[in-house]
Amino acid sequence: MLEKIFQKLNLDQKEYRIFTSLYRLGTNPASVIAKHTGFERTNTYRILKKLNKLGLISITKKAGIQYFYIENEKTILKYIENQKNELTEIQENYSLIESELKNLRPESLNPPKIKIYDQNPKQIFDDIINEIKSQNLTTIRLLASETFTEQTGRLKLKDIGELFIKNLTKFNIKIDALVAEGMLTRERLSPLTQINSLFDLPASNGATNFYLVGNTVFIILFKENIIGVQLSHPDIAQALHFIFDQLQKK
């Protein structure tokens, strides 16, 4: 039974035999423990030092020679308590471990991060600004029409649009846009490079706008209820960047 307990404590058979031999023999140097267990002396000394580091055995010196001993039967309980405290500390700081593990994995292998916005356009544009800052961007790309003159309930989109443009100007962010134009619906795309105001865009009846912000895509549907989706994934964003590049060549 004792050997199985040692196994559960992540101590191997040699460590178990050396510990129990030391307990039987009492205070002794490594040479005596090695002779009693039949293990090589150097290996026995190394294991005794490890058990000492774990707090399971103690060391004293007599005439310059190291002697090993076990204080009492409570040393195993003390070891268990120490292990428990260390595991508790690891558990409390697991978010740091998880973060470091995620950093080891290429972002393209992770599933897309998705965030849904429901009737909160200000939060959408605040998050766009936050993404710009976190990715250190100088340009964002749009597939959009000028929808900020619309009004939903008591929320004036024009005010939100003006604040958004003000923030873009503050951080010296340029807008690379593909403009959706048409009378009753979107009929054609026209490139408009490096505009500095969303109000420069011609209006259309299309009400779904795409904001390509580095590795993050924001899709905003402007209807009676404003709905937005944020997709964060480099592969998805890269595909949209490619589409933008190809359309701008035409």
Explained architecture:
The chain is of the alpha+beta class. It folds into two domains: 2-92, Winged helix-like DNA-binding domain superfamily/Winged helix DNA-binding domain (Arc Repressor Mutant, subunit A, Orthogonal Bundle); 110-249, 2-Layer Sandwich (Endonuclease, Chain A). It has helices at residues 2-8, 13-25, 30-37, 41-53, 74-92, 94-104, 121-134, 157-170, 234-249, and strands at 58-62, 65-69, 113-118, 139-144, 151-152, 155-156, 174-181, 188-195, 208-213, 216-221, 227-232. The chain has a seven-stranded mixed β-sheet with strand order 3-11-10-9-4-7-8, sandwiched between helices. Strand 5 and strand 6 form a beta hairpin. Helix 3 (30-37) crosses helix 4. The longest helix has 19 residues, at 74-92.
Topology of helices and strands:
Layout: H1 2-8, H2 13-25, H3 30-37, H4 41-53, E1 58-62, E2 65-69, H5 74-92, H6 94-104, E3 113-118, H7 121-134, E4 139-144, E5 151-152, E6 155-156, H8 157-170, E7 174-181, E8 188-195, E9 208-213, E10 216-221, E11 227-232, H9 234-249
Helix pairs in contact: 2-3, 2-4, 3-4, 7-8
Please summarize what this structure is.
Helices cover about 45% and strands about 25% of the residues. The protein contains nine helices and eleven strands.
